[in-house]
Specification:
Elements: H1 7-17, H2 27-37, E1 41-51, E2 54-62, E3 67-72, H3 74-84, E4 88-90, H4 92-98, E5 104-106, E6 112-114, H5 132-144, H6 148-161
Parallel strand pairs: 1-4
Antiparallel strand pairs: 1-2, 2-3, 5-6
Helix pairs in contact: 1-3, 2-3, 5-6
Length: 162
C-alpha cells in the first residue's frame, strides 16, 4: 500500500529499518524514551482510514490498565511502530481502495524478489572504488551531517567487503 510521505519522515523510517544510530535522538526516538520513562507501551499501529486520498493512523498504547488510541499521521505512526517493533495493520476496505499488487519473481533458492530498480551510479558516486578507510571517513561525515540515506549506502558497501 503506497503512502506518500515527506522526506524527513522517510528518513526516520529508513534509519530505523537500516538500524543506523544517529548522533542525537530523532523525534520518534524521543517518543519511545518518553513512553518507556512513563511506563506505557505501544502495542500496534493501525492505518485506520482513507478520506479523499489522505490516510489516517492510530498509535495503540497500553499503560497497564487501559488501552489508548492516539491519532497520528501514518508516517509518524509507522516510524514509531518500527521503533517499538509492533505490528502495523490496516482494514480490508483501505487495502481494496489503495492497495497495489507488486510484480514478484522467485529466485533460485525459492525466496521472493520484488522488481525494484536500483539507482545507477557513476564517477565519484561509485562506492566500490573507495578504500575501506575512505568509506569509514565518508560514513562518519554522512552521520555528522545526518544524511542517513547516504550513510546506509556506505554502510552497505562496507558490509559487502566483510
Amino acid at each position: 500500500m503506497p503512502i506518500i510521505i515527506g522526506m524527513f519522515e522517510a528518513q526516520a523510517i529508513a534509519i530505523e529499518i537500516e538500524k543506523i544510530v544517529p548522533n542525537r535522538p530523532m523525534t520518534h526516538d524521543l517518543f519511545k524514551s518518553f513512553a518507556q520513562a512513563f511506563n506505557f507501551q505501544v502495542t500496534e499501529i493501525v492505518i485506520s482510514d482513507l478520506k479523499e486520498g489522505v490516510f489516517f493512523a492510530k498509535i495503540v498504547c497500553y499503560d497497564g490498565s487501559q488501552e489508548i488510541e492516539i491519532d497520528a499521521r501514518p508516517s509518524d505512526a509507522i516510524a514509531i511502530g518500527l521503533r517499538f517493533n509492533v505490528p502495523i495493520y490496516t482494514y480490508e476496505f483501505i487495502m481494496s481502495e489503495a492497495g497495489i499488487v507488486l510484480s514478484e519473481s522467485e529466485d533460485d533458492d525459492g525466496s521472493i524478489l520484488q522488481d525494484v530498480e536500483e539507482p545507477v551510479s557513476s564517477g565519484k558516486d561509485r562506492l566500490k572504488d573507495y578504500s575501506f578507510e575512505a568509506l569509514q571517513e565518508m560514513l562518519n561525515e554522512a552521520l555528522e551531517r545526518e544524511n542517513y540515506e547516504e550513510a546506509a549506502r556506505i554502510r552497505d558497501e562496507m558490509n559487502k567487503r566483510n
